[in-house]
Amino acid sequence: MPTPQLRCASFELRSNACQKQIRNLAVYRILWLRPLRLTSLRELAYAETLRWFSRFMRSVTTDLMLQHLARLVMPRAGVRLWRVNNALQRIYSTDMPITGTLHPQEALLQRSHMVSNHIFSCGRYQLDLSRSRVMGIVNVTPDSFSDGGKYAATDLAVAHALRLIEEGADILDIGGESTRPGAEPVPLQVELDRVIPVIEVLSATTQIPLSIDTYKPEVMRAAIQAGADIVNDVRALQEEGALDVVADSDAGVCLMHMQGTPQTMQLNPTYHDVVLEVQQFLCGRADAAVAKGIAADRILLDPGFGFGKTKEHNIALIQHLDRLVNIGYPLLVGLSRKSVLGRIAGGGEQQRLHAGIAASVVSAMKGAKIVRVHDVKATVEALKVVEAVMLLN
Q1: What are phi and psi of 373, to 5 degrees?
Q2: Could you tell me what percent of the chain has a pLDDT over 70?
Q3: Contact assessment for residue 390 and residue 366, using Cβ atoms and an 8 Å cutoff
Q4: Long-range contact pairs involving 67-75 (C-beta distance under 8 Å, separation at least 24)
């Protein structure tokens, strides 16, 4: 029996290239989808489109496509969610649970990789992310963009870290190499000499998670052995051996997006769709981490504000932060004292306190679970207001 064919309209999807390809797919094979019990042409077309779209965007996980369907496409199309839900399970052979007790859209979004109960597992700690947490910055460097040189000595860095804890920091992020635009790489031994003594002291004297801000596998390994609980990597474990170091430990990891390197990232950052491309990258790196054996509840994602992005790119990411939250992993946002805040509100690095607080508040209200900041006390107080308002709602 020949396959019936029907013409369908093009669909609103976010990639221009995808739109062009879908317009070229003028026919949809109804017979192929008939066993899936999709009866309306609209349902058939969207299911077939999603099946093709996941092949076209190979670096985007099925989970992200399912969430796009539920959040953007399905309500606008009036598609019967429970039918497409079953269809997608057949199409992708996913492990997505289908239950009669959940609202269809809730069932569609219930994914196995999403962190349950808002718990982030990192080394010695199980961090509750049911409310937004504050990560205090400890730069053990002479050339960081904001406070370079202030805490370059071990005793000064430790004293600063203890002060941040008193101000309410939930995590400390310790770095020994500046990643500001134009910064030059630091020799391995120099970075080790800067950060390891600080981590050793803080690990023995404090009771909050410690994060090592590095992309070098050797520094990751030494820092974890010294007591670090989290690896905060601007290169998202892309350096050779980095995935293995984290997989062989119980440390948590933050995977960040960066276009280029600190030396080149701000020369001419270019995107077709910055939000979609950051989504693709973060999904791909999270998948690589999970495939290597890093548990999903040990993973954070960071859009990388200021790392290979213009003012417009950064603003677009803030505006659409919910799309990044929808990937399914807790989101860390680092906007503190960044130049984009200066371009919006004016002022040098030391005059961006109020703009930074506003950025943290907006990020938390849009779903960020951790904000990485210099000004801990002010941010903690602002987030208490956010928490009270969100709980009230």
Answers
A1: -140, 160
A2: 67
A3: no
A4: 67/109, 67/326, 67/327, 67/328, 69/108, 70/105, 70/108, 70/109, 71/326, 73/11, 73/12, 73/46, 74/46, 74/105
Measure the CA–CA gap between 247 and 341, rounded to whole angstroms: 36
Q: Which domains does the chain have, with CATH numbers?
A: 5-109 (no CATH), 116-392 (3.20.20.20)
SS3 category, 237: coil
Which residues are within 8 A (CB) of 237 and not within 5 positions of it... i.e. 6 or more apart? 231, 243, 246, 253, 255, 285, 288, 289
pTM score, whole prediction: 0.71
Contact in structure between 317 and 309 (CB atoms under 8 Å):
yes
Alpha helix segments (H runs only) across 41-140: 41-56, 62-68, 74-77, 81-92, 104-109
C-alpha 56/C-alpha 188 separation (Å) is 40
- The span from the CA of 327 to the CA of 302, in Å, is 12
Beta-sheet pairing, 332-333 with 5-7: unpaired
178 is written with which tokens?
Answer: 């500046």
* Alpha carbon distance 150, 152 (integer Å): 6
Quick one: tokens of 171? 């995590």
CB 3 within 8 A of CB 27: no
Say if residues 245 and 238 touch (Cβ distance below 8 Å).
Answer: no
Q: Which residues are catalytic?
A: 338, 372
In tens, the pLDDT along 96-123 reads 333 333 333 333 333 334 444 489 999 9
